[in-house]
Amino acid sequence: MPVDFQPSWMDEDLTAYRDTVVRFLETEMAPGDEEARRQKTVGREIWRRAGALGLLCTDIPEEYGGPGGDFRHEAIFYEETSRRALNGMNTSVHAIVAHYLLNHGTPEQKQRYLPRLASGELIGAIAMTEPGTGSDLQAVRTRADRTKDGYVVNGSKTFISNGGQAGLVVLVAKTDPEQRARGISLLLVETENLPGYRVGRVLDKMGLHAQDTAELFFDDVKLPADVVLGGVEGQGFFQLMSDLPYERTIIGVQAVAAMQGAYEATLAYVRERRAFGQAIAEFQNTRFKLAEVATHVKVARTYVDRCVEELMAGTLDAAGASMLKWWSTDLQGKVIDECLQLFGGYGYMNEYPIARMYADARVARIYGGTNEIMKEVISRSL
Ligand SMILES: Cc1cc2nc3c(=O)[nH]c(=O)nc-3n(C[C@H](O)[C@H](O)[C@H](O)COP(=O)(O)OP(=O)(O)OC[C@H]3O[C@@H](n4cnc5c(N)ncnc54)[C@H](O)[C@@H]3O)c2cc1C
Question: What's the pTM value of the predicted model, to 2 decimals?
Answer without folding.
Answer: 0.97
